[in-house]
Write a structure and sequence with these properties.
The protein is mainly α. It is 59% helix and 3% strand. Strands 1-2 form a two-stranded antiparallel sheet.
Length: 142
């Protein structure tokens, strides 16, 4: 509360002093600021600062981009692993969460969730988890 009272007091004092200085003083400050911005030395310094800022931003962007490229494969693997740990597998036939291998009587391989020796899981999905789609015109297309 003390800081708020100090701020309000400072604001009031600034308002009173600004009102006493009047429009003439305001115009003087505005003219001085315009003269400073039109000064070639100030413009050169501003250009140099802008060029340095652009160079620093480009360097930072390149460093961040390199780090992301280095870690990108790990991000995807970690996301897939964590998602598979947290989300239950869904049985597409019943629309419910199913225990892999529960209906077929065969336990899936440890890491891939595929039926042993088949390359596909119980739902007909390949080792990447994407269901296989029959070719058009094949007997399974029906």
């Amino acid at each position: 509360m003390r800081y708020r009272a100090t701020f309000i007091t400072g604001l009031a004092v600034g308002f009173v002093l600004g009102a006493r200085a009047g429009r003439e003083r305001y115009e003087q400050m505005k003219t001085l600021a315009r003269r400073a911005t039109d000064n070639p030395a100030v413009q050169q310094a501003a250009g140099t600062a802008a060029a340095q800022a652009t160079g620093l931003a480009k360097t930072a962007r390149d460093k961040v981009s390199d780090k992301v490229q280095q870690r990108k494969p790990g991000f995807a693997d970690t996301a897939i692993r964590k998602a598979s740990e947290r989300l239950p597998r869904r049985d597409k036939r019943t629309g419910t969460g199913a225990d892999p291998g529960a209906e077929t009587g065969t336990a899936p391989d440890d890491e891939t969730g595929t039926a042993p020796g088949t390359g596909t899981d119980e739902l007909g999905a390949g080792t990447d988890g994407v269901p296989s789609v029959p070719a058009p015109g094949s007997p399974a297309d029906g």
